[in-house]
Batch of 4 targets.
Target 1
Amino acid sequence: MANVLFTNVRVIDGTGAPPYPAEVLVQGNRISRITRGARTAGLSGVTVIDGAGATLMPGMVEAHTHFAWNNAATLDQIQLMPTEEHTLWTAGVAKTYLDHGWTSCVGAATAKPRLDVVVRNAINEGLIPGPRYLAASQEITVAGSLGDDMLPHLPYPEFSFGQVVSGPEEMRKVVRMFLKYGVDSIKLNLSGDNLTPASDAKTTWMSDEEVAMAVRETKLRGKRVAVHARSCASIKQAVRHGCEVIYHCSFTDEEALDLLEANKDKVFVAPGLSVIVRLLYDGAEWGFPREKAVALGYEEELEAVEQSLRAMHKRGVRVLPGGDYGFAWARHGENAMDLQYLVKYAGMTPMEALLSATKHGGEIMMMGGELGQVKEGFLADMLLVDGDPLADLSLLLEPRKLLAIMKDGVFCKEPEMRSSRTRWSLPAA
Ligand SMILES: [Zn+2]
């Protein structure tokens, strides 16, 4: 691990402060010194990266990832991939995220019991490249809801990407199995979803007894519960039971918003807008012409989620980017689209969208005191960006605009070196 000095960079530090010119010194895996403005001379034993005015910002955090989703157009295709291929696929996707500037990811559910855990462990052991990662369980669901894909005449659980339970005792058994495997979070499908018309987004499926059991068992081991909650009743259920990570949050009323606001220091919301937006506007290519997407309820849901997100953002609820990439209509790697969606649909400024991906990202990784900001003492997860993301968030979609990607003080993508010491020669004074 070399010591690295970034000179001549414009820092977006992830605190919300305006960008400033500075030099940033990385020693080991941490940011050890930030010097505003001035140029340091004569540091020995340090690799100097002359940023030539490029932007240095915290690595991004994806709050709702499914490494095991395989860029298919149907849910069935996820499950039909055999385990061996699926493991290699999942490992490959982890690298894709890192290559696109996501230095941390929160797993939101995996497709077979141990995929996420195995990939997280391999990353941590240095066997494969990947972001910092919190491994998820499969989606736990109930008969008939999202994640139960068993056919009446082929009642084999392996057809489902979820684990189907009925009653608190079955819930306890499945939760304990995933905790034994070593997941960081348990995922519950509280509501339905418009991709499964028989259990649409406004419906609520899990009983309070089942949710309470899952939360109790999970918290006993100090782990976290994340939920799929699109319906209004499911959002309230999630907050009442102390589930910290709430995905989607589409349909709210005043009571739901009050509950979220009262718990804003505990809960994180990651809406995962890609499915709704892409199917509604570009779905024809994948078998969802506009009329079909509207009939499935996506127009109504987009209107609802926009209102909900704007209200949550005004009330100070943390809304984070990420969600449900890994389908044909929104492939892995396109995740930075979410930053633009947060501006368009949640009413964020570009700076607020960046904060949601960095400062709040560190918090959802449960490392808020040391991750997600360019700050002395923080872990050195940083991106060197060619241009100003605040002026154009779409820069973050393009890997070639990410001049360097550093995770834990190590370059995952090294800046191109034009001489032995600097990336660029300094512009003429
Ligand atoms: Zn999801």
Note: The chain is about 30% helix and 20% strand.
Target 2
Amino acid sequence: MGNTILAVPDSRKMRSHVVIVGAGFGGLWAAKTLANAPVEVVLIDRQNYHLFQPLLYQVATAGLSPADIAAPIRGIVGMCRNVTVMLGSVESVDVLAHRVLIKGGRSVPYDYLILATGARHAYFGHDDWEPFAPGLKRIEDATEIRRRILLAFEEAENETDPDERRRLMNMAIVGGGPTGVELAGAIAELARRALAKDFRNIDPRAARIVLIEAGPSLLATMPADLSADAQHRLEKLGVEVRLNAPVTAVDAAGVTIGTARIETRTVLWAAGVAASPAGQWIGAECDRVGRIKVNADLSVPGHPEIFAIGDTALAIDTRGKPLPGVAPVAKQQGLYVGKLIKARVRGGKVVPFRYRDYGNLATIGRKAAVIDFGWIHLRGSLAWVIWSVAHIFFLIGFRNRLTVALDWLWAYFTFQRGARLITGSRL
Ligand SMILES: Cc1cc2nc3c(=O)[nH]c(=O)nc-3n(C[C@H](O)[C@H](O)[C@H](O)COP(=O)(O)OP(=O)(O)OC[C@H]3O[C@@H](n4cnc5c(N)ncnc54)[C@H](O)[C@@H]3O)c2cc1C
């Protein structure tokens, strides 16, 4: 197909054109902020849905179904008359011609461009580990992890060789950040509770779940008392926590940590992220993990018309520290850039972006979480209630909030996990 330049309707030609790439937290909040402003917005994403990534681990561990944590982008911005949604995978940007280039030969012109393409998992130069240790970023990753976990128990049930059965019932999670902690806690509960009585030849409660962290503590960004509490609660759930344990090899039969070896058929990767390649598209200066270094107003140096937000941007806080790759940062940045563009087209000004940190949360399993509000540290069941309410509140769409609340209530009283489906092909 030739290079098609999408036409702009005549009646709209005088209005500035804002192109947003990515309908994650950053891009979606920018689009909503620009709704009904005197600009035309094109919101491009390679998926037709917005994904609530903080609950992906629940899909991976059979607690929720994919549709519970995702919502169609067209449905979310359907009421915003000046926002056009476009399904497409952006491949590059022609910064001189002010045009976004989409796979298949299409291109879209822009006056303002917002890059909100997020991040992906990274293997620190060991991409060959990926087939053996899937990361968790997309719906497909979550259903693949769910398949591997459930299949391991099924195969162990049919296995007669005790060594192979042991390998199948060992599970290793690499990375002791929030995702690793949440996965380890949820897998332990799946094995000890939901699956406990389902098998005849194996006892799922005997599964060995190992959480491997290269650094000296779990949840490294949390205060020491909360990371110690998280470790203690995971150990009570039966998770084996290995600290100061950098992984040196991953293969089909297990994980190597220096000279130690864990024989397992199930390794999950929660250890590293890298930004999307958006920085390369525009030839911007990036940090070690590919995040675009942005100005105080989140514009890209040398390109006042291009903004980078969320996980794909490196923004600095008032103390000179990089902002974390979390949903509230992306949302607040989307909101800010939306307001900035509105102000620019109206001839107004805005102050530099400033992140408001409302707290840092992580859950460890049923009735356990830790929260750092800065001025107070919470742990245990109160923290878990706050974590649950916050996640239901921040989910997009009433249907998702209702189904997740009902699923959690059901799981709370029955210990069951309804989404225990093995889908996709076998290894
Ligand atoms: C497993 C997991 C758990 C997490 N837990 C938490 C948590 O508990 N709390 C928290 O605050 N944060 C959490 N995060 C981080 C949080 O989800 C991210 O910080 C947030 O999603 C970043 O928003 P974003 O808009 O920058 O990118 P994303 O939300 O990742 O959105 C990027 C969008 O860009 C699209 N895109 C990418 N490349 C292209 C392309 N070339 N063309 C078109 N579209 C493209 C993608 O399809 C996607 O829709 C978690 C992340 C993960 C992966």
Note: The longest strand covers residues 39-45.
Target 3
Amino acid sequence: MATQEITEDMIFQCFAAAQQSKDIHRTAESFVDVEEYENQVMYPEFARWAEKAGYSELASLFRKVAGEEKLHAVWLRELYTEMGVPTRGEDTRRAIDALKTIRANCDALIAMNPDSVVEKALKVAIMVEEREALRIYPQFREQALAEGNERAADVYQKVVESESEHAQWFHTALRDFQANSRVATA
Ligand SMILES: [Fe+2]
Ligand SMILES: [Fe+2]
């Protein structure tokens, strides 16, 4: 039987719920969903993988970050309610449905090489957090400032700081993981 190898790209695609729109406001709006799916789908699933692979401390870190992503969704939803932008939920729903179909596949891959899957989940987490900390939210903040909306700029800045912290935590976790991993990493 051919051995299937899960790639970072496969994991990233599994969890890519965000809809990037040409209109920055629509993109910003869809990030309520991104935060929700990180809270409800992506990080709980990464925590489940880490737990299954025997890394309970790492599972706790994924759950801690999941909790903070919920907070981001709350901040953004508050902001958009004030600004009169309707909240949406279809993307999160779609991600939850997709997860049901990939879960069995993920479990089979974890059984084959748990450390490799956990390491890749960490790399995806870093990619997601850095994308938000360095590109997405700074862009939303700049746009808000250009429009004189300081309240929105403050909210985005708060998210930037939190996402930067998440990226740092995952970098440290990856370093520790690679130093202590039971198998040599490629
Ligand atoms: Fe977030
Ligand atoms: Fe985050």
Note: Helices lie at 8-14, 24-52, 56-83, 90-112, 114-146, 150-180.
Target 4
Amino acid sequence: MLSIDLTGRRALVAGVADDGGFGFAIAKALAEAGASVSVGTWPPALNIFTNLLERGKMDESRKMSNGELLQFERIYPLDAAYDTLADAPDDIRTNKRYKDTGDFSIEGLTNRIRQDFGEQPLDIVVHSLANGPEVKKPLLETSRNGYLTAVSVSAYSLVAMVSRLGPLVRRGGSFVSLTYMAGERVIPGYGGGMSSAKAALESDTRTLAYEAGRKYGLRVNTISAGPFASRAASAIGIIDRMVEYCAANSPLSDPLTAEEVGVTAAFLSSPLGSGITGTTIYVDKGYHTMGMAVTAIGGD
Ligand SMILES: NC(=O)c1ccc[n+]([C@@H]2O[C@H](COP(=O)([O-])OP(=O)(O)OC[C@H]3O[C@@H](n4cnc5c(N)ncnc54)[C@H](O)[C@@H]3O)[C@@H](O)[C@H]2O)c1
């Protein structure tokens, strides 16, 4: 039987702070396939996340097909806006949610993984994070600062992660990120430079695939997911309408699940995906293929 087998592989999923988003579903799918999984969690959300875990509030969603609960090998603090601790401004470093976490930068994460597991302990890295402080503003009204923050946190962070974590990933390993169609087509309401960030992320996926492929023998792909009501997506303000619209106008009319994105990431990260790199894979019920709204002609 052909199956996704990640036994003996180690994964890091950056961007998990609850059980409601793609990062969690990807972590679970990787664990279902046999990988050991660590996560990177944004410091402002870290306490709430570990409390919910300890108090058993996520036990239902952590339940795996073998009846055991999904375990995280490590939970690392990570603010992907900063490459080094010195890059973080004072008010962040001294903030009560940050000050006791140790080095939460991408370099700090890299050092901790090296200390915990050795020089080349990883096989899979997943980038499942984004933030655009002005996402509700149209691009025309977005400030330079808002735009640059969106691109820095949501796109450059992938470049920095491949650059710093790449040497820790064993040959044949894989990086996967999450993008959205707003990087290539207009999605009204997805503002603040987030569309620009996704365009950069998709372009960088191709260039990083070439560079990390030649340098380390690694693969880099991105999943273009359809709209899904995660915590981050709820910040857009119109996510429920986006989900409804896609269901009404896609070739497949049932709503997208996080599990569908999770298993695609597990496949891409597995040896079964060894020939795939530099690619944007759509997991959106086929919405990207449509050129006209089904609802406009009263279809169902
Ligand atoms: N939900 C959707 O409709 C949708 C569609 C396509 C793509 N995506 C992408 O999927 C990815 C995951 O998002 P999600 O929708 O599953 O929501 P989510 O809320 O589960 O994940 C976003 C995560 O990013 C983290 N984060 C924010 N700023 C950070 C920072 N500076 N450093 C580290 N972590 C930070 C948040 O704490 C959160 O855990 C994102 O890249 C998002 O753009 C989402």
Note: The CA atoms of residues 12 and 38 lie 5 Å apart.
